[in-house]
Predict the structure of N5-carboxyaminoimidazole ribonucleotide mutase.
Amino acid sequence: MAPVLILMGSQSDWPVMQHAAQMLKDLGVEWRAEVVSAHRTPDLLQTTMQQAEQDDVPVVIAGAGGAAHLPGMLAAFTAIPVLGVPVPGKQLKGLDSLLSIVQMPKGVAVGTLAVGPAGAANAGLLAAQIIGVSDKSVRDRVQRFRAQQREKVMSGAKLELPE
């Protein structure tokens, strides 16, 4: 299977987007990352998605800050699922990015995750879950991850409450 494609509008988005890459790595899902700017390299958007389709990329994770046009523009060029991660900026802390990504027009779907590192990690997890629909080994790894998460909570769940 082709690797999940992680795209970001700028190299400065990597500190957030690396959390998607780490989640995919932890789940044994291959990935590759590239920088494609919706505003500075618009000509690369279409060719990047054409190549992704030729390569049978199963899912695209796109991180963007500010106006955050990247996920929606990528989705306009493909039927591959696109997961959008709002990258926080200095002025509006990612609220602008969140609204830009989540408010897609009818007919152009982008799955939108939370702002920042948690959203990026969950984008990696969701990408693995999408792949897991047709790849039992990935689904099994996701299920093991979920069981480990549960165990972490349960092992710390013994709280002493005041009477």
Q: What stands out?
A: The two ends are 56 Å apart (CA to CA). The first strand starts at residue 4 and ends at 8.
